[in-house]
Amino acid sequence: MTKYGSFPGARPRRLRTTPVMRRMVAETRLSPADFILPAFVREGVSEPVPIGSMPGVVQHSRDSLRKAAVEAVEAGVSGIMLFGVPEESKKDAVGTPGTDPDGILQVALRDVRAEVGDDLLVMSDLCLDECTDHGHCGVLDAEGRVDNDATLERYAEMAQVQADAGAHVLGPSGMMDGQIGVVRDALDQIGREDVAVLAYTAKYSSAFYGPFREAVASSLQGDRRTYQQDPANLRESMRELALDLEEGADMVMVKPAGPYLDVLAKVAQSTDVPVAAYQISGEYAMIEAAAEKGWVDRDRAIMESLLGIKRAGAQNILTYWAVEAARRL
Ligand code: PBG
Fold this sequence. Notes:
By secondary structure, the protein is α/β, with parallel strands linked by helices. It has one domain (30-328): TIM Barrel (Alpha-Beta Barrel), CATH 3.20.20. 37% of the residues lie in helices and 15% in strands. The protein has 11 helices and 10 strands. It has an 8-stranded parallel beta barrel, surrounded by 8 helices. A hairpin with a 7-residue loop joins strand 2 (49-50) and strand 3 (58-60). Helix 2 (62-75) packs across helix 3 (104-116) and helix 4 (148-164) packs across helix 5 (179-189). The longest helix is centred in the middle third of the chain and has 17 residues, at 148-164. The model has no long low-confidence stretch (mean pLDDT 96). Bound molecules: ligand PBG. Ligand PBG is lined by residues 125, 127, 129, 137, 173, 209, 212-213, 224, 280-281.
């Protein structure tokens, strides 16, 4: 008898013997309904434009976006989160394309709603950074600082035009204080109690946004450290969570996902509203780049990264692999 065998202890390996056994005892399962696909649509292009730092992801034309939305429905994905990339010449200090009913994001929201109806949740990024010539998520004061309350006025207008254009869910992502309350009020004022708000609750000032900034042709000089959170802070996210819930958030989100699983776990344990996590562009790019070099098994790395995010407590995951992962399940 082996030494271990002389003890009547449990043998966890018994539960790992066969694929069926492992499947039965799996504590976490991914399903297509978990996923939300973030998608970019660029004004003035007739063909999709590849994004160099995100192999496999494109800036869509209006047409290719409609097709991508249909594919998402067919794959069983729950939602699509749209980001608009306006023509460079239309960007200005206050981000006019963000409130123009004919701005690219609003046009795309109408296109996608016309295509998918209620078969897919149509979500819109509510932020000014894609629309401003300085690239910040808000408007600036005389000293060049991001002006919180002046930005809130712009967000209120954006909320109304995005709802008019057909968004089911708005995703305020600029990290201004009070943004959830202002967006909620703006929607209620025009009788759109039906439009939900997915709050970017804990959004960190991250190096991993790099590829996204290329994706939206960002004009940003400098950084977003005066409004996005410091990566060092965990407890601060509890404060952001309390405020967002008080202001009327229907769902909350943690972003990025992978480097912030502790934050995600804590948020998920602290609230009873649905919790989402955004696996961002840099998380995507890292796996794609390592896989291209043959350093990791691409498909396994993708699924493991998503499983980890779900295990940490996310009910929904925004991921650029949404359709691919959903098809594989
Ligand atoms: C800001 C915004 C960012 C992302 C989505 N909306 C971050 C930023 O530029 O600071 C990042 C998404 C990603 O990296 O995949 N409105």
